[in-house]
């Protein structure tokens, strides 16, 4: 807990890159087996128990180079002469006895980034080495820096390897002292499961899991998901996937959100163990959201009901000794009014926005003038494309065109390449306004999008000054 000493402590007059003379602790404190009763406080985020021969705290720990005999709270170039202040307070009457040094709102040099943190020394009643707590109230633009302790010769030391953040406490404890209690992960959930999921659907969102911790950090290593639902079986859902919220919109969007891992369902009841390739760190003040999604088999039984379930806190795995809070479990997307039914598949063809290839001007007798590039994809299985209707807008008339052609972009470059791209259909423009129906048979497979090119020949009697454009709709 942060100890505010700005009104009870002594404010030091410290220049940039400076240290104080001896400051009494008010009691005896053991540090690396040596009893000390005074310290030197330095502007650049550290204290030392020996006369400082360097004002900078950033040599790695341990290191024989000066300064040694030090406790480093935040090894940055800090300048209390510009902003904020450095305070100290001795509390010899408390249990345990404490000595506190606080850097409050001190700017990092050459910036306007205030940093607020403190070093707390706690006397050990057993006369062993004392406890050292480094507390970070608010850090600005800092997620890592040298933090640690080192003996008087630099031969022994301990550096904190983790990330830094607001409301974080780093404790250095003597080997005989009791360990701090483990951190706990809290898991909140939101059901995302749709009412229906079709055979062959992929990345069907089922659950959003929000991870938080009130202290320090917890590393998540795996999530175990059970397949729930009336009549559900592993053949309905071959695998589950886990995604990390990345783009900050709070909604599941494959692509912008980061894919983490997939796992197959197996066993009875069917479960999938989603083991992360690397642990996901959840730090205090930095919540993380992950999404559980299902892939539905193309042979899934129609009218089966499915859900995603986390049976208990043990369904979320974290690095020991940290634990998971059991509150809110079990988590299940299958419940009254919120459940997912498998329905028969419906293969759908999608067309991305057409790309115009039309030149600003064209001439009579021109042949194979590129008009449009059309990209088609199937959501599952396959879709048979039977043709394209090309409506022509503008002042052009049917007699301006000799022929319309549909070609398959064989070399997949998005451009018309004569004698390479395959002709699928040729049609004559008719009517007013003119239109052409290009009929062909082309199968579009899921996962294998195709690009079609529309080109045309200009009539030798085309009227100069006529204009043309094309706008397609799904009905075309």
Strand content: over 45%
What is the structural class?
mainly beta
Alpha-carbon distance between the two ends: 67 Å
**Overall number of domains:** 3
Helices and strands in order, then pairings?
Elements: E1 10-12, E2 23-31, E3 34-42, E4 46-48, E5 70-72, E6 78-79, E7 85-91, E8 98-108, E9 114-122, E10 131-138, E11 148-150, E12 157-159, E13 168-172, E14 184-191, E15 196-198, E16 204-212, E17 217-228, E18 239-244, E19 258-264, E20 271-283, E21 288-295, E22 305-310, E23 316-318, E24 323-324, E25 331-332, E26 340-343, E27 349-351, E28 355-356, E29 369-378, E30 382-393, E31 401-408, E32 422-427, E33 435-445, E34 450-458, E35 469-470
Parallel strand pairs: 14-24, 15-26
Antiparallel strand pairs: 1-7, 2-3, 3-4, 4-5, 5-11, 6-8, 7-8, 8-9, 9-10, 10-13, 11-12, 14-16, 16-21, 17-20, 17-22, 17-23, 18-19, 18-21, 22-25, 22-26, 27-29, 28-29, 29-34, 30-33, 30-35, 31-32, 31-34
What can you tell me about this protein's structure?
It is a single chain. With 476 residues, the protein is mainly beta. The chain has 3 domains: 163 residues, no CATH class; 160 residues, Immunoglobulin-like (Sandwich), CATH 2.60.40; 122 residues, Immunoglobulin-like. 0% of the residues lie in helices and 46% in strands. It has no helices and 35 strands. Strands 1, 6, 7, 8, 9, 10 and 13 form a 7-stranded antiparallel sheet that branches. Strands 15, 17, 20, 22, 23, 25 and 26 form a 7-stranded mixed sheet that branches. The protein has a 6-stranded antiparallel sheet with strand order 2-3-4-5-11-12, with no helix packed on it. It is elongated. It starts with 9 loop residues before the first strand and ends in a 6-residue tail after the last strand. The mean pLDDT is 90.
